[in-house]
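Why does residue order matter? Because the sequence determines the fold. Keep that principle in mind as you read this record.
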Amino acid sequence: MVGTNSTDTNPPAVPTTIPCGLNGSTTPSSVGAYNDTRGGGGVGANIRVPVVAKKLDFAIQGAAGDGIGRYGSAQLADITLRPDGTQAPIRTAHALGELELHPNSKLDIYAYFGGEYAWRTAYQGYNSISITKTPAIPTTPAIPATTTTTFKLNQIGGYGSPFANNSGCSTENPPSNQLTPAGGGTCAGDTRLIMEGTLGFWDKLVQGPKGGLRWGIQYSYFTRSAWSGGGISPKAVDNMIWTSFRYYLP
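Structure:
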């Protein structure tokens, strides 16, 4: 009797080696590398005035420009990269409004509201290469190790791309272990707008030659809205209440 073996024992395809388009080299090098410099900057202003002498103060401040995300409290991104590798400053705007009420010498009541906004800076035309290595399998016959190279052309990228993948923004993955948090899912989540409103007070309990004791309560409402990607617009909301006791040296 003649038998057949249905197990495929053909070795995997030989990995493809991609030569450099500039000098034909197949080893990593700095050939073709270059420096790229971009300028950024912005303008800002602020004003503080007493609306009612010694009773109510009003203040407003703001700034806007290209590549100034780091100068805001939310630390928005400064730049992204174009498909050709050059830098693209991200336009941002920051604003803050303040009201401070002083009904008497012991009590201060305050209300603040601020926001930071980042514009879309997205492009298409990125090319990517990913390499997947599979170790050898000691079977009979043995299967050698393989390296698979995948090319993707004309991809989307940059900051706030409308084609970004936000499908996993509402999914919280389990941590890897008790010390390592989850790495997150498929969520580009590039920030469009961050806002926070705050209301609170400070009460001067004691003020004398040996110092002062104050206590206060603050409520904050915080929202972060991301640029839509794939038809999904992620948004996060956080409500916070803080209490504080402070001693001030004389």
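The chain has a mean pLDDT of 88.
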